[in-house]
Amino acid sequence: MLETATEFSIKDEDQLTMELIEAQYTLKDSRDRKNGKSLVILVSGIELAGKGEAVKQLREWVDARYLTVKADAPYLFRTQQAFWQPYARYIPAEGQILLIFGNWYSDLLLSATHVSQPMDEGMFDHYVQSMRAYEQDLKNNHCDVIKVWFDLSWKSLQKRLDAMDPSQQQWQKLHGLDWRNKKHYDSLQKLRQRFTDDWYVVDCEDETVRNQQFAQHVLHALKQLPRHKSTVRSKWQQAERPEQLIQPATEVFDKKEYKAELKKLTKKVAKALTTDNRNIVISFEGMDAAGKGGAIKRIVKHLDPRQYQIHTIAAPEKYELRRPYLWRFWNKLDNHGGISIFDRTWYGRVLVERIEGYANPVEWQRAYDEINRFEKNLSDNQTLLIKFWLAISPEEQALRFKSRQETPHKRFKITEEDWRNRKRWDDYLDAAADMLQRTDSSYAPWHVIATDDKYTARIEILRAILKQLKAA
């Protein structure tokens, strides 16, 4: 465990205040710079150890306007929600500080000690590993995380309970434990020792030491503003382009047969989607004009508009760029058995952002593993991911672009940038090849629909959705 961030000694309060505020404003001013970051402070610990008092004191020592505190009662883990989902929307932007009282570790402790749903050690440790991986992804995306456990001995805890007004003791519960019960106390200590080796553990016997240590841990984190990494040491191993991306099929689906099959499949897909109790995420990537919009239109044909959301993803806004790149997708996910359809997705990081240089090599090369972890978290929590890459030939794309230009109600779909992107065709093929190789998994497989015939593509997409719904 991390006992101290630096050599600890009690500081003059005025000096400590000055250093904290100075570091706070330096962090605030780092926004949009090469060393910009945000800070998340996770707080947990033994009841009556003084967490609230330490946070209250910290707020008096810093500029309270720029310290956000989120305090909630712990949640029991839900089967349709990843552990990070209740907190994702609150992840701060560069220059901001968030302190979380009730956090994913509080939820883990509550879920592990819940009498009706006991958690075995293997599952507990799996959650800890997933949480650390999530925190590392936050750090890699310039959102630093520090974790502070406020500890108190059993003897001191009992003395503090004795000194309390009896009418207040009923409120002194954390994770539903009875703090008069030594067995409960020992059980919690054993559990927390399974994850606090990378936490700052503050001994809370002395109030002054407690408050100063906590504040100095925060100060140390505020001062750490290293420049973002932008170069990689190893040479990138480019994946081989799949043949179907190079030469999409050209066979044409008979129009009469297409209409009959489409009518049947759209009804089957609607029924299968609406009777499935899982969260469903259907995502589309592919070359411009490959048919994403047309496919989505057929998927939702017989769905009630209240049953699904379509997210059309464009370039990120500035406030989104100041947060981890997955942040804007975390906040678009349904976790109540709904259907989410994405026209463009989080894969933009390893496609357009890679090709156009919006993400540096460190960022896009790291993103494959970040995406895989993100999708595994969703899959582990009853979310079915159905992913499509739509491929057409450059000749077919040119024909569709021209058609759009000549059709009044479709002109908005074509821009000068679309024509310019055709010059990067080979770059997109390379990026797609890497993406397919590195993010195709048993829990989130890719469906490659490679055809110049839009009727064939739509039928194959609907069939693939039905097949994956049944298989899963």
TrEMBL record:
<protein>
    <submittedName>
        <fullName>Polyphosphate kinase 2 (PPK2 family)</fullName>
    </submittedName>
</protein>
<keyword id="KW-0418">Kinase</keyword>
<feature type="domain" description="Polyphosphate kinase-2-related">
    <location>
        <begin position="254"/>
        <end position="471"/>
    </location>
</feature>
<feature type="domain" description="Polyphosphate kinase-2-related">
    <location>
        <begin position="17"/>
        <end position="224"/>
    </location>
</feature>
<dbReference type="Pfam" id="PF03976">
    <property type="entry name" value="PPK2"/>
</dbReference>
<dbReference type="InterPro" id="IPR022488">
    <property type="entry name" value="PPK2-related"/>
</dbReference>
<dbReference type="InterPro" id="IPR027417">
    <property type="entry name" value="P-loop_NTPase"/>
</dbReference>
<dbReference type="GO" id="GO:0016301">
    <property type="term" value="F:kinase activity"/>
</dbReference>
<keyword id="KW-0808">Transferase</keyword>
